[in-house]
């Protein structure tokens, strides 16, 4: 047995010894594609065979070991691997409420000025976005306060002695830059503004969903043939 097969066997052995346990395999299609394909290496074939043996639980009691896997390419899976999974569940794109919650989760404790109505508006605007798309969106938005601070030409004192970027009409605005404040030893006193709905609108104006209608049709067809709704 090669090293890769041993790792697979050891993984399942550890799961049995620490049962109840869950083994999760992400992007399983990259590991368990169709056998007989021209680009399949001998090492890949052996790993796949060992995984099939372990999932079948030959000579073992796997009642308390749950194997989960995820794929975006269900038709690429080897038929034997597909049959090893008792359930093949299609997880659709997040709905309105789920997207609204995802924006909140990814923002976390980051200071922002968004209201419940703003979060709902963002969720409606991102119909067709995946969870990954929303994560990328929020990640980009998190840089907006930094960009504003770097480009600002006016600052005002907020929260006592902290300097926050602002427009020229802001009461107490002082014409200066982040670099000038830093040169005066005030770098630690510079406070980026809280994230606003405008920041999200700016990012969403250039972002598009990564999942196409054709991709969704493939998943829906596979679900009708082999799976069930999640």
Automatic annotation (TrEMBL):
Q: Which Pfam families match?
A: AAA, AAA_lid_3, Vps4_C
UniProt domain Spastin/Vps4 C-terminal: residue ranges = 163-227
A biological process term (GO) from this entry? vacuole organization
Work out whether the entry's keyword set contains Nucleotide-binding. yes
Signal peptide interval: none
List the PROSITE patterns hit by this protein, alphabetically: AAA
Q: What range(s) does the AAA ATPase AAA+ lid domain occupy?
A: 118-151
Q: Which PANTHER family does this UniProt record tie to the protein?
A: AAA DOMAIN-CONTAINING (PTHR23074), PROTEIN SUPPRESSOR OF K(+) TRANSPORT GROWTH DEFECT 1 (PTHR23074:SF159)
Q: What is this protein called?
A: Vacuolar sorting protein 4b
Give the species: Arundo donax
């Amino acid at each position: 047995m090669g090293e890769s097969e041993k790792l697979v066997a050891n993984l399942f052995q550890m799961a049995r010894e620490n049962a109840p346990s869950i083994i999760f395999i992400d992007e399983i299609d990259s590991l368990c594609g169709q056998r007989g394909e021209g680009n399949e290496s001998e090492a890949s074939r052996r790993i796949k065979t060992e995984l099939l043996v372990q999932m079948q639980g030959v000579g073992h009691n796997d009642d308390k070991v749950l194997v989960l896997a995820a794929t975006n390419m269900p038709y690429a899976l080897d038929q034997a691997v597909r049959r090893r999974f008792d359930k093949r569940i299609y997880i659709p794109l997040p709905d309105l409420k789920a997207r609204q919650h995802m924006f909140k989760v990814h923002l976390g404790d980051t200071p922002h000025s968004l209201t419940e109505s703003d979060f709902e508006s963002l969720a409606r605007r991102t119909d067709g976005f995946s969870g990954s798309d929303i994560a990328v969106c929020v990640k980009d938005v998190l840089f907006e306060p930094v960009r504003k601070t770097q480009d600002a030409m006016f600052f005002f004192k907020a929260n006592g002695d902290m300097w926050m970027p602002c427009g020229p009409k802001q009461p107490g605005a002082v014409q200066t830059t982040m670099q000038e404040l830093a040169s005066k030893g005030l770098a630690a006193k510079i406070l980026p503004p809280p994230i606003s709905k405008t920041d999200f609108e700016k990012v969403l104006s250039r972002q598009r969903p990564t999942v196409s209608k054709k991709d969704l049709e493939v998943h829906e067809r596979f679900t009708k043939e082999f799976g069930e709704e999640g």
